[in-house]
Amino acid sequence: MWALANVLWSIGKMKINLADEPNGPYLAVEIEERIRGLVAEGGLEDGRDAEQLWYGLAFLGYPWSTDLRQLLLDRTVPEFTDWDIKAQAQVG
């Protein structure tokens, strides 16, 4: 999960707007499917991975699907108290 989250952050850092790219929506679907697969494999068990993923998704500013956001909320919000304050500030 960490590697994927860092790739998302890098895409945002390069100021690439998936919504404006010709294949952006297709890539977004592929990213969402990969995230779902990694979550199913326990990819959010390490809170640092979850923090980085939220940061990467937020940095891109893409309108991610409601079901993906709900999945991530369900899997991460209960653990927020274990996250460090700096990471929470970056996500929020």
Please give the largest β-sheet.
Answer: none
Overall pLDDT score? 85
Whole-number radius of gyration?
13 Å
| Total helical elements | 5
Describe this structure in words.
With 92 residues, the protein is mainly α. The protein has one domain (2-91). The chain is 66% helix and 0% strand. The radius of gyration is 13 Å and the shape is globular. The two termini are 20 Å apart. The mean pLDDT is 85.
What would you say about this model in short?
With 92 residues, this protein is mainly alpha-helical. 66% of the residues lie in helices and 0% in strands.
What labels would you give this structure?
globular, 92 residues, 66% helix, mainly alpha
Outline the fold blueprint.
Elements: H1 2-13, H2 24-40, H3 47-60, H4 66-76, H5 85-91
Helix pairs in contact: 1-3, 3-5
